[in-house]
Write a structure and sequence with these properties.
181 residues; alpha+beta; 3-stranded antiparallel sheet; 30% helix; elongated
Length: 181
């Protein structure tokens, strides 16, 4: 999604929230915990409001139970940061483009990584097969400080990926790279 496409899709916070409702990111309805009636979404205020006569203090955030809960930032701002993260922008670049602090951007990037890692299914299965190509390679995971100095101890990982739409993968830590392994 280009910057102009993003801005066209989300011209303001209200349109952004409406879009999130349409895509079922936000709940379309919410039940009042006291009177058990269906609450009314009030998009401008970003809340569900109880429609009973005595509705004092009966509002609940539309963000509750979603990815957006726990942040005071507008949804459009969070989506903009997510767009830059998905595009591979660095924290520094995103900080400059959004006028948010590097700490805020770092926290959101960490949140995005956690969401992705929680959605990964850990399943034992065989990849490849008849007429399915699987690419396999090894890599060493480790880090040298400032990319200087001696070779770093790390861990060798054997990885494979299918050339299919599902792109199933496997990762296996191995002791060494010898042919027998």
């Amino acid at each position: 999604l280009s910057e102009s496409e993003f801005n066209k899709l989300f011209q303001n916070e209200e349109e952004c929230i409406q879009y999130l409702f349409e895509k079922n990111i936000f709940y379309n309805s919410y039940q009042c915990k006291i009177c058990k009636q269906t609450m009314i979404p009030m998009i401008k205020r970003s809340v569900f409001r109880c429609k009973s006569e005595n509705r004092k203090n009966r509002e609940y955030s539309i963000r509750k139970g979603t990815f957006f809960f726990g942040s005071n930032m507008k949804c459009i701002g969070i989506l903009r940061i997510a767009r830059y993260w998905l595009g591979g922008a660095s924290v520094t670049t995103t900080t400059k483009l959004t006028d948010h602090s590097s700490q805020t951007i770092s926290n959101f990037y960490k949140h995005f990584r956690n969401l992705i890692s929680q959605s990964i299914d850990d399943v034992d299965q065989i990849i490849g097969g008849n007429s399915i190509i699987a690419e396999i390679d090894e890599t060493k995971l480790g880090k040298r400080k400032y990319h200087r100095g001696h070779r770093v101890d790390g861990v060798w990982v054997l990885a494979g990926i299918e050339r299919t739409i599902q792109k199933k993968i496997f990762l296996k830590v191995v002791e060494d790279r010898i042919a027998k392994t």
